[in-house]
Amino acid sequence: QVRLLESGPGLVKPSQTLSLTCTISGASITTSNYAWSWIRQPPGKELEWMGVIFYDGSTAYSPSLKSRTSISGDTSKNQFSLQLNAVTPEDTAVYYCAIGSYWGQGTQVTVSS
Predict the structure, then answer these.
(1) How far apart are CA 106 and CA 53, in angstroms?
(2) Dihedral, CA atoms, 20, 78, 51, 16, nearest 10 degrees?
(3) Where are the beta strands (DSSP E) in 1-113?
(4) Which of 36, 77, 32, 40 is nearest to 56 (CA)?
(5) What percent of the chain is predicted at pLDDT more than 70?
(6) Is the Cβ–Cβ distance between 82 and 72 less than 8 Å?
(7) Cβ proximity of 24 and 104 under 8 Å
(8) pLDDT tens-digit profile of 54-65?
């Protein structure tokens, strides 16, 4: 069974970079055809897909976030990470990492000075 655990700071100041890591257990980040996603849910809003890193290290991003988002993988640690640049209070959300029906518990990130 795949398990995912998000980690990172819960508070980020406006204009700074939000950095989160997802630790994978029960599968390898390089397992063929796997795609590892970041998804967020702002308060009172719907889930928003942010981007994905594929088993081969290639990535794809939501067009609305592409200019500020970077996803990378660390095969030695079996982790993948999210960086979101130039954050604003509108980036306040619960951030999830996921693959298929397997989701992490989510981590709250608040953007505030």
Answers:
(1) 18
(2) 20
(3) 3-7, 11-12, 18-25, 35-41, 48-54, 59-61, 69-74, 79-84, 93-99, 102-103, 107-111
(4) 32
(5) 100
(6) no
(7) no
(8) 999 999 999 999
